[in-house]
């Protein structure tokens, strides 16, 4: 049961960190990167495979970044621009 609670917390954190940038593409890209990093760390902490965590975190982060709107979140220009 503890692993499920930790996984749910990880999903909430990943979703909240997913949207950086001012276009959908920027937010999807940065959300995927943030999600992959957090998923790898989360997977390792929870005793799962970090690669699986990175893949799942990246997918969740990219999806969350892509569905947000400019008025919802705008953290400015991403570092790659």
Order of helices and strands: HHH
Average pLDDT rating = 77
- How much of the sequence lies in strands comes to under 5%
- Helicity range: 55-70%
Low-confidence stretches: none
List keywords for this structure.
single chain, 3 helices, mainly alpha, 81 residues, 69% helix
Structural summary, described in words:
The chain is mostly helical. The protein has a domain at 24-67. The chain has helices spanning 2-17, 24-45, 50-67.
SSE layout:
Layout: H1 2-17, H2 24-45, H3 50-67
What's the quick description here?
Helices cover 69% and strands 0% of the residues. The protein contains 3 helices and no strands.
